[in-house]
Amino acid sequence: MIAASIDDYRDLARARLPHFLFEYIDGGSYGEITLRRNAEDLQHIVLRQRVLRDVSQIDLSSELFGQRLNLPVALAPIGLAGMNARRGECQAARAAAKAGIPFTLSTVSACSLEEVSVATGQPFWFQLYMIRDRGFLRELLARAMAAKCSALVFTVDMPVPGSRYRDYRSGLAGAPGFGGALRRTWQGAMRPRWAWDVGVCGRPHSLGNVAPVLEGGSGIEDFFAWMRGNFDPSVTWADLDFIRSEWVGPLIIKGILDPEDASRAADLGADGIVVSNHGGRQLDGAPSTAEALPPIAEAVGERLTVLADGGVRTGLDVVRMLALGAKGVLLGRAWAYALGARGEQGVTHMLQLIEAEMRVAMALTGMTRISQITREILVQD
């Protein structure tokens, strides 16, 4: 199948990945209302078509946190992404480096900070969850700095995991012991290409960054048990002082949906925020990113760098997010689908699709530079 869009990569990933892994990527929490709103609200944003504007020279480059980028996008952190292709985070990080954009490694990745650093030879971003064990957290941040991570993305919208029905139905969660493992093994056996690429050739199977505290466990159950026991629901704004004391470099707060929280992040010295509802995977019924972004950008856009994610499936969606006030856009499911379908080659091609679609959208709205993309290109109600 020829992949002409991210939706095509979604179909290809569904056909290649075991059911439990595809559902983990694709699903949201509860009834998935917010998951659907993310995409639908973006698609309902209407752009002003402009003509005769000389769009022969379009420049998509931008700068985020002192880094010059070929596109105003980054690959968002995705847990367990290394199970979608052989040493998957390394493949995605290489694709991002070739495209001249940042890759963000999740705390709960299959590939460790050190492995990704060796694989790319380029700086990348690191995503952090607040963990109860502050000693281990301090060691993790030291490892990230030693790996030359250029920014820290601190996720704040997951004090407790959201309830994701698809994960229970697929056997990924809520089926402890032999029964759950047997279901996943059977689903993997039904996808022989994946089973060989990841199950056999992709070893070791572990959570590279948190393996030292898993006490030898490497199964899915060990991951969920560790997450339930070690994510810290007592975290408050005061904990930013601890993060700041241990981290040298740009600090980005991910998971902001309210202007008051955005202002608090700016007051406490964050360098950036990500307007995000965790891809619809946490509080179902929360606003879509497209709805939450404009008032947040208006409130703090002059004080820090506003990024956004959620529902982005095309380069046209990237332009929409920029017009709503974001300075950059994080791609999540888009690269997970592409990685699951065709590995590094898929992620590279997905980014090429995003670039091509952005060029068309900019040309037809009369824009030649990223800085020109503002609310002026939107059809106002």
Descriptive account of the structure:
By secondary structure, the protein is an alpha/beta fold. The protein has a single domain, classed as TIM Barrel, CATH 3.20.20.70. It is built from 15 helices and ten strands. The strands form two sheets. The chain has an eight-stranded parallel sheet. Strands 1-2 form a two-stranded antiparallel sheet. Helix 1 runs antiparallel to helix 15 (333-364). The N and C termini lie far apart (40 Å). The model has no long low-confidence stretch (mean pLDDT 93).
Summed up, the domain count is 1
CATH fold-type name? TIM Barrel
Percentage of β-strand residues: 5-15%
SSE string, helices as H and strands as E: HHHEEEHEHEHEHHHHHEHEHEHEH
Number of helices: 15
Q: Would you state the CATH class?
A: Alpha Beta
| Amino- and carboxy-terminal Cα gap | 40 Å
Compute the CA-based radius of gyration.
Answer: 20 Å
Per DSSP E runs of 2 or more residues, the count of β-strands stands at 10
Reported for the largest beta sheet, the result is:
8 strands, parallel
Q: What's the CATH H-level homologous superfamily?
A: Aldolase class I
Q: What are the segments in which pLDDT stays under 50 over at least 5 consecutive residues?
A: none
Strand order across the largest sheet? 3-10-9-8-7-6-5-4
Shape: globular
Query: Structural class, please?
Result: alpha/beta
Helix proportion range: 40-55%
Mean pLDDT: 93
CATH architecture: Alpha-Beta Barrel
What would a concise description of this structure say?
The chain is of the alpha/beta class.
